[in-house]
Amino acid sequence: MADIETSSPETTALQQLLDNHFPTLESLNMVDDLLRGEEETHSILEEELRAAQTREAELEKEAAGIAEQIRTESLKLIDIHSEIVGGSADDSVSAWQFRDGTETMELVSKLAAQLKTYERLQQSKNYIDIVIDVEKTVEQAKSSISKDPQGVLAACTHAIDILAEHVAAPDLDRSYADRPSNLCTYITQSVRSMWEEVEMAAGASQSESLTKLGWPGNIDMSSTSTVVEFDSSFSMLLNLDRIMRDAQKTLDRSGIDLCKGRFAPLPLEYMARAVDIRMRYHFESSRNTNRADKPEWWLSQILTTLRNIVPFLEAHVQWLYDATATEHLDIRNQFILLLLPIVRRKLLHDRSEYLGAGMIVSSVVRELSDFEHTLQEVYFFDGPSVLDEFLSDSTVFAAWVEAERTSAMKAYMDTVAEPGAFDPVYSDDVLGADDARPSRVSEKAVLLVEDIAERYSMVPSCMLKLQILSTVQFPIIIALVEDVEAEVDEFSRISLPFIRDSTVISPVASANTTTLQSSFIMQLERLASWYQTVWHVEEAARDWNNSAVYVDMWAAVCRRAQKLGDGVDPRDWRDGCDSWSAEDQMVLDQEQPDLTSVTDNDDWLDGGIWERTIKTLGDLKKRILGLVSTAVNKEVVGQMRPYRKKNNWVVPGVDRVDIDISSEMGSVLPELSVLVVSLSSMLPYGAFVRLIRLLADELDTFLTDRVACAHRFDMRGGLQFVADVGAISRVLFASTARNAISSAPQRSLAKSQECGAILSCATDSTSSPTVGSNTEMSLSLEEWGPAIMDATVDDREALLVLAKLGVSHLTVKQVLQLVRNRSDYAYNSVSDAP
């Protein structure tokens, strides 16, 4: 106990340590074993140290001996040289005065061998010094990571200097030219390992501080210590990045790639990793949020992240960077550049699904366009376009185009196959008289074309737009035209020849007449539906031709045509669009702010992308209207045949009473009225007017040639003819048929009215036509007839006379025939008897 009490404090501390940590005998035995092991290790190390020291002493002694030997041999060589050269009196000493030189050559060989050994020893010593320098630098960097940022930076800078001096020097002297490759590999690997460890430690520190701040969500900068921690790690990474970029040539020559594809400062790279990890977790894993058909999900997430962190980047990170870096950098723009690889990788990740379901590509294009528009307009981003890069993948673009084409054609063919595909979609009271009345198929075709245009309007490349237009949209209109033409051809071949060309109308046959009329109206409705179908698409194509997207396309093809030469018609652009080259794309995608400067010839301004389509539709529309006119004229003329055969225009002995329309005409007018009213409801205003005028011309010619000039009349018969012509004119041009059409004289049956005026003209001044006969002849036949019937009067003079009488549409021959047909007027002339 006395010994314990008088023991030193160190002994007491040791005893307490043993009592606390080694209370049992077994634990003390373990300590004893451990101590013996350590003593053995210490002994081994001491032996190795003594052997190394002995070897070092031997090498030093050997080196000193070699140096002394070299000195001695050198002196001997000098003596020999002096003996050989100095003992000669002149240059003509004979050869026998010299020794054979064998001893000299042996000395030189020994000297060379010793010198080589010495150089190897010196080189080995230099290598050891280099290794020791590298080890010290690495150890300094590792020990200073957490406590001495400046020491870390100094160590990294020195490591770069070592690389520059011993590995990457472009003009090494001969003493270092043959150093072993394993030494260079050792230096390179040590520097790379040290750098990666330092960078990883600084990056982990920054990531930890960012996590505390709430990155990459809503940033909370209320903790000052966390902000200071972030600032320190940010500055460390930024300085490491500066050292790395300043030594880029040295690193390249050494075969060290510290950038690893990075283009932004290191701290920003590490800041972007947190966003990247979150995006991978949600949108590239097996979670439900990873859906290729929902590009808006992950693009909106990136925008939400930007909205949360941009204020922090602009207010704090930008200031921190400017305080450390020597060159200005827009942190916001640079960070967005770091987020674009996330977008590219996600697009590549979903590429297989895009190829399998091409319609998804249209959604991706739309969302990417909106995404880039937000970046540019809200965050003033001026970097590359991911949308352009995405569409440059020809396989993905082809999958989209093919999906659009297949979907559109299937939708169109399904509509055509439905019953009543050409039936109007809207009732008559919905649209005005001047509006096209779309059928189901025409409305579907127009909607398909417009929907496709809306989907690809986001595509930046004009050449790609033109390819979609040529491959997807044009075939829809072509298919529509071909279907309508097939219907029209069938009607022309089968239905039109069987339209009745002879029908006897009688009051007792009203039921049969109604059946025939109903059948004919149905045929007209078919033609009218085709006309309305084509007209609706034509009107839509005219609107498309003036829309901005197609105007830009037209300007592009005109630029290309101008570049190819004056003989190239821009309307022929579709002929070679499948083999467009990169040069063509450059011309087509060129921005052209002033469209009038595309070419000196302004004729192209009157055209457009849809110009030939409009012409094709217009020609088909004219053909259909021609068929309607032919069918209507044939039908009406067939109904008028009983009237043509009427031969009771001269009724002797009948008193002159008020004249009403004839019974034959009275049987025709109801069907004609129904036909006109039906046409007015089937066709648009312009087409209806043209059709009625064509019908009026046909009837005018029929009444003139087949009735008025083919029968004999007295004045009463003429008045009857005038009444019938007036009745037909009122049916054709009555305001009740179409409010917009008036019964103006210029739209009446001009020749028939003039025929009626001549046939109802009074024979002499004592007779006069019935009151209300609408005749305009102010002179009787006796007063103007001789001037026309006189053979000595030429046609020019006769026309002047007729013009004074108001006759301007009939020929002189027709007037002569009409006068001759007047049974109550006889022209007696000596020179020309009637």
TrEMBL record:
The keyword Coiled coil applies. Keywords: Coiled coil. The keyword NAD does not apply. GO terms for biological process: endoplasmic reticulum to Golgi vesicle-mediated transport; regulation of ER to Golgi vesicle-mediated transport; retrograde vesicle-mediated transport, Golgi to endoplasmic reticulum. One of its GO terms (cellular component) is Dsl1/NZR complex. Residues 35-69 form a coiled coil. PANTHER family: RAD50-INTERACTING PROTEIN 1, RAD50-INTERACTING PROTEIN 1 RINT-1. This is RAD50-interacting protein 1. It comes from Coemansia interrupta.
